[in-house]
Amino acid sequence: MLLLPRSRREALEVLYRFCWLADEISDGPGSLPVKKKKLSGCKNELKACLTGRSRDPFFQKLQTVIFEYKMSPEPLWSILSGVEQDLKPIRFKTFPELHGYALKVAGGPGLASMEIFGFKDEAHRVYAENLGVFLQLVNMTRDYREDMALNRQYFPSEDFKRFHLIPGSIEENNSHWIPFVEFQLERAWSYLKIARRSLSSRQRGELTTAEAISAVYFKLGQKLWNNPRAILRGKTSLSKADKLLSVTGAWLRCLSWRYASK
User: Fold this and answer.
1) Domain tally, the chain
2) pTM over 0.90
């Protein structure tokens, strides 16, 4: 976010804080009734934000961002809808179910971010939604073990059946696990391709922050591809050097695209 002008950076920080608060409802401690109560309170605060009546200090900041950037309410409601799904055990049977979920929890923040960047047209919507799905699929691949421990089987049952795997009972030496991971990452990269093709290089050059995020996750996807079995041992992460190189490369590409368009 340091690649953004200060005003947009501060607005994006507020949006990400909202996403974090929503995520903590489902992933944080507490019983299901307590979490439902917290989600209900979050929904009420968002309603107040959208009508300019919020009295909560944080949601007043979000309210200011919403009105300053004329943000659409749908992406924000999508985020909360995705959180609501996470309150229950998840067992997606087909990819369309997973895709619909990803459009909420990742497409929602993407669309909201795009409005802060200053774009609301259809091409940028396609970019934001598909980039969000890409990020979410890579995340799900990396976090497979952690998600299963939370009773969340995001990958569709049809995928496990296709690769002769039993969710939650996969050993590191299972030969079917590697092609399963490769299949999920190839699917993720297909959405990244759609996102990139939706905009010209010049347009992508104006979205340095989004391009930097996608570069980091592309690098993470490559690391998961090279060592799929590590996913079953714990969370795979990138070094600070890998992240810095990915962000710097994206920044330089965006600069070159903007320069070439002049």
Assistant:
1) 2
2) yes
